[in-house]
Design a protein that fits this description.
The protein has 208 residues and is an alpha/beta fold. The chain folds into 2 domains: 38 residues; 157 residues, Ribonuclease H-like superfamily/Ribonuclease H (Nucleotidyltransferase, domain 5). The protein contains 7 helices and 8 strands; from the N terminus they run ααββββαβααβαβαβ. It has a 6-stranded mixed beta sheet. The chain starts with 9 loop residues before the first helix and ends with a strand.
Length: 208
């Protein structure tokens, strides 16, 4: 902090203290790394030497506003592109999560990138996409459209915990707060950059 003349928020400071505690504990034989990992979460990029797409849906407020968003980064955490959008026709969180996956896959395909992994914190959405066809599901057409996009790319849709998906959550809430059906972000919107930096530093977040 001193050498870089940086000012850290209390939240970021607390997360970095937690990260240091994890490092110290795993240095001693009596510590249980598995137990520690169960209590903290970080952005999942360590297992992939490619691009990482994080997506999320959001339904907030009264009356509820439904939105979605996501971003593409390389495994070092460098921002490539992002998107956010508002859904005026529904307040169903499952639709928002599926919209996020669909538009995320479309965005990455439009960039000409075909080797990436997609993370969503909606276990139901991931299960529907990776499971057998469901002809009579309310969103069967959208789910099949997502499956078709996956066939065209070297891509998997995997589940992540909410605490490892804060950047996508930020964009989903941004979409819900806007009136734009779909907005592409060529650079991080205001307020997102600190979250991207935390992920790039492999900051651990306590599980809620």
């Amino acid at each position: 902090m001193c050498l870089n003349n940086e000012e850290w928020s209390l939240t970021r400071l607390a997360f970095n203290v937690n990260n240091s505690i994890d490092v110290i504990r795993t240095s001693f034989p009596r510590a249980s790394p598995a137990a520690i990992r169960d209590n903290v979460v970080k952005w999942n990029c360590s297992n992939h030497d490619c691009y990482i797409l994080n997506v999320d849906g959001s339904c907030l407020g009264n009356p509820q506003r439904c939105g979605f968003g996501g971003l593409l980064r390389n495994n070092a955490g460098f921002f490539i592109s992002g998107f956010s959008g508002y859904i005026a026709i529904s307040t169903d969180i499952l639709l928002a999560e599926l919209f996020a996956i669909f538009h995320g896959l479309q965005m990455v395909s439009a960039l000409g990138i075909f080797d990436f992994v997609c993370y969503s914190d909606s276990l139901l959405s991931v299960s529907l996409i990776n499971g057998p066809p469901l002809k009579f599901h309310a969103y069967a057409t959208l789910i099949q459209d997502i499956k078709d996009l996956l066939i065209l790319t070297n891509t998997r849709v995997l589940h992540t915990l909410h605490e490892g998906n804060y950047c996508a959550d930020f964009l989903a809430k941004l979409g819900a707060a806007s009136d734009s059906v779909l907005t592409n972000h060529v650079s991080p919107p205001e307020g997102l950059l600190p979250l991207i930096r935390d992920d790039a530093r492999r900051t651990y977040f306590p599980r809620g």
